[in-house]
Amino acid sequence: MSDLTRLTAADLAGKLAAGEVSSVEATQAHLDRIAAVDGDVHAFLHVSDHALDVAADIDRRRAGGEQLGGLAGVPLAIKDVLVTTDMPSTSGSKILEGYMSPYDATVVARARAAGLVPLGKTNMDEFAMGSSTEHSAYGPTHNPWDLDRIPGGSGGGSAAAVAAFEAPIALGSDTGGSIRQPAHVTGTVGMKPTYGGVSRFGAIALASSLDQVGPVSRTVLDSALLHDVIGGHDPHDSTSLTDAWPSFAAAAREGATGEVLKGLKVGVIAELPDSGFQPGVSASFRAALAAMEAAGAEIVEVSAPHFEYGVAAYYLILPAEASSNLAKFDSVRFGMRVNVPGGTVEDVMAATRDAGFGDEVKRRVILGTYALSAGYYDAYYGSAQKVRTLIQRDFDEAFARVDVIATPSAPTTAFKLGEKVDDPIQMYLNDVTTIPVNLAGVPGISIPSGLAEEDGLPVGIQFIAPAREDARLYRVGAAVETLLVDRWGGPLLDRAPVLGGTR
């Protein structure tokens, strides 16, 4: 494997800017890596036919003296929930097989304008409904740490691509943990920005009040660099914040010094008992907190009494919004059409949706339609929104006392493929710590915290900050990353056996 694929995005960008390597060389190295390992990992649904042409154009522009963005020439993987003009956009669904968008998602357009090189589209649970990437219509993605295990979901493809060194950075989306939970189980970094901080225009909608696009990477700095490219106001997105954002990369570099930990107040939720977590996950979480405390942080217990209702509220709000958003896939306006000889429009619509949607999508659409139906709206959807408000208040009260809140990023390490696919409740509980972040619209980041003792698989720690304080997360995340990498003696991914390391 070429050493270029082992470089962080920041280091690769530095070599590109210094003329030590060309974008064509970097892109070819990653394409070769994809060709070598993706048959086993299945992180990609589509590999770009134009990547080398884009890279060559970047090299020509750089050689001509043009001032380019800091990540110009760096390869990028794109979750298939984001539409692209030059590659199919399926959202992991058969109903959109082969669909070509007439426009790019805003984050994709911004990445292209900054000179990043799209490598391809990554696999995902269909319409982002899932926690294991087993609900893709195009087959599951495998965890690079253990090919018999899940890479998380719904964005397992992006996380696996980054973990397997098929791409240095990737774009993902997070509706209830779909960036952070895959990061947890693959030993990568996943950032869910403040709601409205990154445009959703061109992201195929699941639940519009919860969806958020964000970066996937191997380091906190790399996530910050990509966040700087894709963030900011977009007039095409009615929920886009008009805030002027600071440099997230500068925040990450500041945090890497470790000084931010001195006097930092870190909240730990009293109502989050160890009983629901794998012992190795809890042990890794406690060890990370102890390391932070030794570095000068103050650990403070905070109360969030309504978090326990988050999963239940989420699985009413999300299906209700998904039921509405997916109504457009009706055999008339978008996607596939199943012809029914002599049938009515309704017959064709029913046949198309039956053939085009997978079981998990059908389950959630049916649940959401029921929750929105006359006579049940207030009892289900309305009540869930009230719980959402209570969770937001829990966050407000906690952040009056602490700078950030810390939790395990997920309850377990990566489970075996097929182990929970037929048990929706157990699958949904994978997002117990990530869901409240989306319900409240605040930012959250997952960074690797170690390996679980019982199975040697990656574990993540999640940090949560108040809305609009994404830079705070990058400072804290980078500080903890530096602290823990020093303790491990190198990046965690260097110890993944499937990738050539030893645990």
TrEMBL record:
The keyword Metal-binding does not apply. The gene is gatA. It catalyses: L-glutamyl-tRNA(Gln) + L-glutamine + ATP + H2O = L-glutaminyl-tRNA(Gln) + L-glutamate + ADP + phosphate + H(+). SUPFAM superfamilies: Amidase signature (AS) enzymes (SSF75304). This is Glutamyl-tRNA(Gln) amidotransferase subunit A. The keyword Protein biosynthesis applies. Belongs to the amidase family. GatA subfamily. Heterotrimer of A, B and C subunits. The lineage of its organism: Bacteria, Bacillati, Actinomycetota, Actinomycetes, Micrococcales. Pfam families: Amidase (PF01425). Signal peptide: none annotated. Allows the formation of correctly charged Gln-tRNA(Gln) through the transamidation of misacylated Glu-tRNA(Gln) in organisms which lack glutaminyl-tRNA synthetase. The reaction takes place in the presence of glutamine and ATP through an activated gamma-phospho-Glu-tRNA(Gln). Keywords: ATP-binding, Ligase, Nucleotide-binding, Protein biosynthesis, Transferase. Residues 25-473 form the Amidase domain. NCBIfam families: gatA. One of its GO terms (cellular component) is glutamyl-tRNA(Gln) amidotransferase complex. One of its GO terms (biological process) is translation. The active site is at 79 (charge relay system), 154 (charge relay system), 178 (acyl-ester intermediate). It is an enzyme of class 6 (ligase). GO terms for molecular function: ATP binding; glutaminyl-tRNA synthase (glutamine-hydrolyzing) activity; transferase activity. PROSITE patterns: AMIDASES. Its EC number is 6.3.5.7.
